[in-house]
Amino acid sequence: MRRGSKALRPDIIVTQDQCDVCAVSLKDVEAALCTWGGRKVEIVSLKPDALADIWEDITKVARALGRERQGKRLVEELKARMVSIAEQSGAARTRPRGAMIEWVDPLMAGGNWMPELVQLAGGDNLFGVAGQPSPWLDWDEVVTADPDLILVHPCGFDMARTLQEMLLLEHRSGWRELKAVRRGRIFVADGNQYFNRPGPRIVESLEIMAEIFHPELFPTRHEGEGWIRYAARNDQRD
């Protein structure tokens, strides 16, 4: 917590208990509050593992702020947008098999809510299980699966930072032969602003994924700002 936090005299502090690597841990927040004397501050800690948890966390924050009704209304609006996307993607004639890459080195697949987003966007998720942490991934698994597309969205990285890491993938054995590489279906997304941010932007994350999986059905509203097609050096499109 920043030194100036106490001076702000907050009544509520919203923190997270989902990942101690990405942000300040709940224990750190509690320890810092111990130095504030007897002043009562409510801690609202969020620990989302799946889409249902994200909706509950939004409601939890709204409840703490005395705006539970508004929070529930927001959740219903977000869910309705997701249902609309899922219905539209359901009309697709194919379901591309996608590899969601959460971290490049060491390699990790997207877990938690990512498999759910892939399903709603009209794709088949190859690695990671809904509601479970992002798993370590062996490169040989990627080569064997030969995904139709690969979406790279490292936790905490924007697109510029991720592009600096892409050579680590290109230098791996078998990269050139991957179907996704040969067909120009490698994508980089802003994981920091979207996919790894479990709040209202998770719906925009689904919109991005739908654009990537089914460009024939969804206009590219987020291209350039939320995602880009990666021009791999070994890109040899069929």
Distance between the termini: 52 Å
List the helices and strands in order.
Answer: EHEHHEEHEHEHHEHE
Percentage of helical residues? 25-40%
What oligomeric arrangement do these chains adopt?
Answer: single chain
Give the CATH superfamily of the largest domain: Nitrogenase molybdenum iron protein domain
Q: What is the radius of gyration computed over CA atoms, rounded to a whole number of angstroms?
A: 20 Å
Secondary-structure content class: alpha/beta
Count of distinct structural domains: 2
Number of helices: 8
Biggest beta sheet summary: 6 strands, mixed
CATH topology of the largest domain: Rossmann fold
Explain what this protein looks like in three dimensions.
By secondary structure, the protein is α/β, with parallel strands linked by helices. The chain has two domains: 1-47, no CATH class; 85-229, 3-Layer(aba) Sandwich (Rossmann fold). It contains eight helices and eight strands; from the N terminus they run βαβααββαβαβααβαβ. It has helices at 26-33, 51-64, 68-89, 114-120, 139-145, 159-170, 179-182, 202-213; strands spanning 12-16, 42-46, 97-103, 108-109, 124-125, 149-152, 186-189, 227-229. The strands form two sheets. Strands 3, 4, 5, 6, 7 and 8 form a six-stranded mixed β-sheet that branches. A two-stranded parallel sheet has the order 1-2. Strand 3 (97-103) and strand 4 (108-109) form a beta hairpin. Helix 2 (51-64) packs antiparallel against helix 3 (68-89). It is globular. The termini are far apart. Mean pLDDT is 90; it is low at 234-238.
